[in-house]
Amino acid sequence: MSMRELVVLGTASQAPTRQRNHNGYLLRWDDEVILFDPGEGSQRQMLHTGITATDLTRICVTHFHGDHCLGLPGMIQRLSLDRVPRPVAVHFPAGGAEYFARLRHASSFYETAELAVEPIDADGQRITLGIGTLEARRLRHPIETYGYRLVEPDGCRMLPERLAAYGIAGPDVGRLLRDGHLDRDGRRITRDEVSVTRPGQRFAFVMDTGLCDGVYALAEHADLLVIESTFLESEAALAAEVGHLTAGQAARVAAESGVRTLVLTHFSQRYADPRRFHDEAREHFTGDLVIAEDLLTVPVPPRRVPSPG
Ligand SMILES: [Zn+2]
Asked: How far is the CA of 164 from the centre of ligand 1 (A)?
């Protein structure tokens, strides 16, 4: 079975703490390994995960505040040091291209790695990957910020017993799959009669934002949602002012969007006890709830049960 999981590198917003490294996240999804928002220290945190720079296929940056991008210089130089054998795609808000250029060449190094730089310059921009579609949505924050979601298309799983009942075998199976139907003994057999839908999976990554349409668009029916909850409700006014979410808001988004596993992260250093995020979120969200910790691995939940065709 293919591996789909989130590996948390760090969970601190703004300033790291003794327990929390700056932000950073890895998503392992079949043959893609995507690094999101590498903050300072991400390179060293990766050492603890068993995932190496040469495993990376893609880097996604939501915005150019330091806690989401100051790990880029080290990671980019590491790609060259380790002689990554294939191009690594990089996505970031196009308006921050100057920041990216500076971070990319922050200091002298021997550049061998090839970066396929594809900035995001439109809300709803889609990038087609082998595993599905990567979509960027504009978020509400003082500087240009995009969240990302990965959407695997629904598939189709043939039911061997039904194929056998209709006497369909060999190349006819491929024909039925391709054409959607097969004519046999004067009767038309449709694909739906011999298959079930294999629901595609969704991952969403929402960082640094006040509540806005983009948050809901990204979270919709996510199997795994990683979302910032910098603050608690007691600081709701401050959160709104500076373009951040509270744990309660993030949990309500998840509940209203049909999220299955909710991962809260990007915590303000003012809160020492992570249970407070859990308790606040639990009031609104009854699904799987994870309060992220550094170096935690969170599996993408098993595929939703297929609906009968
Ligand atoms: Zn920010």
From this structure: 57
Q: How far, in Å, is the centroid of ligand 1 from the Cα of 113? A: 28
Q: 74 C-alpha vs ligand 1 centroid, how far in Å?
A: 20
Confidence (pLDDT) at 212 = 96
Q: What is the pLDDT of residues 242-300, one digit of tens each?
A: 999 999 999 999 999 999 999 999 999 999 888 999 999 999 999 999 999 999 999 99
- By the CB criterion, residues less than 5 angstroms from ion ligand 1 are 65, 208
- Taking the C-alpha atoms of residue 16 and residue 41, their distance in angstroms, rounded to an integer, is 10
Give the pLDDT confidence of 64-104 residue by residue, as tens digits: 999 999 999 999 999 999 999 999 999 999 999 999 999 99
CA of 68 to the centre of ligand 1 (A): 7
pLDDT band with cut points at 50, 70 and 90 for residue 309: very low
- Which positions are annotated as active-site residues? 67
53 phi and psi, to 5 degrees?
Answer: -60, -35
Write the DSSP string, 37-88. ---TTHHHHHHTTT--GGG--EEE----SGGGTTTHHHHHHHHHHTT-SS-E
